[in-house]
Amino acid sequence: MTTQVVLTGTGVPHPRPGRAGAGTLVRCGDVALQFDAGRATVMRLAEAGVAPHALSALFVTHVHSDHVVALPDVAMTRWVQQQLGATGPLVVVAPEGTAARFVRRMLDPYDDDIALRRQHVGAGPVGVDLRPFPVPATPGPVWSSDDGHVRVLAVAVHHEPVADAVAYRVETPDGAVVISGDTRVCPEVERLAAGADVLVHEACRTTALAEVVAGTPFETIFSYHADTVPLGAMAARAGVPHVVLTHLIPPPDRPADADAFARDLRDGGYTGRVTVGEDLTTVTLGGRA
């Protein structure tokens, strides 16, 4: 098998050309797992060669609009595609609480459209198989492939005041990848990342921009995201050989801006491989690509 990690969106709530909303795709053989679904996720999946009807499951890290606004689009596009051949409902794995509640209600605004489409082409209801799980304080399994070759673990992270936020670890025969979601640098992700091959982590240049944002709303926003300097120290302690940065705050517009993110991790003591993500950045576990 070959396991690939594809960034389907590296952006933030403020739109930037070329950067879709938050999302990461992990592919291993016939298994395709999408983590979060920010704006334009369906388009990025199409560009990555994975249609919504081919997803094995979609995982939600937390409820912030920039991580879930395209989830209804994924579900409804899959439903429309299934009119050409059924593949079953979209499996959505989400922490119980605000995330699961969002999934339960997300199609309500589309009820008229769904009813009209069903009448017109005789389609069945939109299939969403919600699989909620209690937010675990220590890593625990939340999903596995039918053959058991791929499994996903989750653990609670610190994105307060957002409740019920989690990070995920995907384990495949090729290795392991950890996806942080949104969080401060925290010991939970450090433990989850121990022994992993790739850490996909959100990145905020808090230390570098502290004076610039002081006294502004961004100071509060930065306080519950991952400061890149402590992130470098955490990744070094966890022994992760490759860190892929995503959800970049502020989004880099020039190569020098991207280099600054990597330099922050170095300042924190990280000496491994750093990739400052762009949409559709692809990494193969084991460093083969």
List the helices and strands and how they pair.
Layout: E1 3-9, E2 23-28, E3 31-35, H1 41-48, E4 57-59, H2 65-68, H3 71-81, E5 90-95, H4 98-105, H5 111-121, E6 128-133, E7 140-144, E8 151-156, E9 166-172, E10 175-179, H6 187-193, E11 198-204, H7 206-213, H8 217-223, H9 228-238, E12 242-249, H10 255-267, E13 273-276, E14 282-284
Parallel strand pairs: 3-4, 4-5, 5-6, 10-11, 11-12, 12-13
Antiparallel strand pairs: 1-2, 1-14, 2-3, 7-8, 8-9, 9-10
Helix pairs in contact: 6-9, 9-10
Give a written overview of the molecule.
It is a single chain. The chain is 30% helix and 27% strand. The strands form 2 sheets. It has a 7-stranded mixed β-sheet with strand order 6-5-4-3-2-1-14. A 7-stranded mixed β-sheet has the order 7-8-9-10-11-12-13, with helices on one face. With 289 residues, the chain is an alpha/beta fold. The chain contains 10 helices and 14 strands. It has helices spanning 41-48, 65-68, 71-81, 98-105, 111-121, 187-193, 206-213, 217-223, 228-238, 255-267; strands spanning 3-9, 23-28, 31-35, 57-59, 90-95, 128-133, 140-144, 151-156, 166-172, 175-179, 198-204, 242-249, 273-276, 282-284. The longest helix is centred in the C-terminal third of the chain and has 13 residues, at 255-267. Helix 6 crosses helix 9 and helix 9 crosses helix 10 (255-267). It has one domain: 4-Layer Sandwich (Metallo-beta-lactamase, Chain A).
